[in-house]
Amino acid sequence: MSEHKYLLEMLCCLPKKLLFLKLNEFDEIPDWLKGIDNNVINEAIELYENSEYVEQRKLMLKYL
Predict the structure, then answer these.
(1) 7 pLDDT above the threshold of 90
(2) 2: buried, middle or exposed (CB in 10 Å: 19+, 13-18, 0-12)?
Protein backbone atom coordinates (compact mmCIF):
# COMPACT_ATOMS: atom_id res chain seq x y z
CA MET A 1 0.00 0.00 0.00
CA SER A 2 1.35 3.41 -0.93
CA GLU A 3 1.78 6.15 1.65
CA HIS A 4 -0.87 8.22 -0.13
CA LYS A 5 -3.40 5.37 -0.04
CA TYR A 6 -2.66 4.76 3.64
CA LEU A 7 -3.16 8.47 4.40
CA LEU A 8 -6.52 8.45 2.59
CA GLU A 9 -7.56 5.36 4.53
CA MET A 10 -6.63 7.02 7.79
CA LEU A 11 -8.46 10.24 6.89
CA CYS A 12 -11.58 8.34 5.85
CA CYS A 13 -11.71 6.78 9.33
CA LEU A 14 -11.96 10.20 10.96
CA PRO A 15 -15.29 11.92 11.53
CA LYS A 16 -16.19 13.78 8.33
CA LYS A 17 -16.80 16.93 10.38
CA LEU A 18 -13.12 16.97 11.32
CA LEU A 19 -12.15 16.97 7.64
CA PHE A 20 -14.42 19.94 7.00
CA LEU A 21 -13.01 21.76 10.02
CA LYS A 22 -9.53 21.30 8.56
CA LEU A 23 -10.63 22.78 5.23
CA ASN A 24 -12.13 25.77 7.02
CA GLU A 25 -8.92 26.25 9.03
CA PHE A 26 -10.43 25.92 12.50
CA ASP A 27 -7.92 25.73 15.33
CA GLU A 28 -9.67 22.88 17.16
CA ILE A 29 -8.12 20.19 14.98
CA PRO A 30 -5.13 18.01 15.91
CA ASP A 31 -1.73 19.44 14.98
CA TRP A 32 -0.88 16.47 12.76
CA LEU A 33 -3.98 17.16 10.65
CA LYS A 34 -2.98 20.80 10.13
CA GLY A 35 0.05 19.69 8.12
CA ILE A 36 -1.93 17.70 5.55
CA ASP A 37 -2.53 19.37 2.21
CA ASN A 38 -6.13 20.44 1.54
CA ASN A 39 -6.06 18.61 -1.82
CA VAL A 40 -5.61 15.33 0.07
CA ILE A 41 -8.42 16.30 2.46
CA ASN A 42 -10.71 17.00 -0.51
CA GLU A 43 -9.79 13.65 -2.03
CA ALA A 44 -10.64 11.91 1.26
CA ILE A 45 -14.01 13.67 1.39
CA GLU A 46 -14.76 12.48 -2.15
CA LEU A 47 -13.87 8.89 -1.21
CA TYR A 48 -15.50 8.98 2.23
CA GLU A 49 -18.69 7.13 1.27
CA ASN A 50 -16.98 4.39 -0.77
CA SER A 51 -18.03 1.01 0.58
CA GLU A 52 -14.41 0.12 1.43
CA TYR A 53 -14.15 3.03 3.87
CA VAL A 54 -17.67 2.63 5.24
CA GLU A 55 -16.82 -0.97 6.18
CA GLN A 56 -13.56 0.11 7.81
CA ARG A 57 -15.41 2.67 9.95
CA LYS A 58 -17.98 0.05 10.97
CA LEU A 59 -15.19 -2.33 11.98
CA MET A 60 -13.42 0.40 13.90
CA LEU A 61 -16.63 1.29 15.79
CA LYS A 62 -17.10 -2.35 16.68
CA TYR A 63 -13.85 -2.32 18.67
CA LEU A 64 -14.19 1.09 20.34
Answers:
(1) yes
(2) exposed
From CA 59, how far away is CA 64, in angstroms rounded?
A: 9
3-state helix, strand, coil in the chain (%, to 5): 65, 0, 35
Per-residue pLDDT tens digits for 10-50: 999 999 999 999 999 888 899 999 999 999 999 999 999 99
Question: CA separation (Å) from 48 to 24, 27, 56, 59?
Answer: 18, 23, 11, 15
Contact 20, 38 (CB under 8 A): no
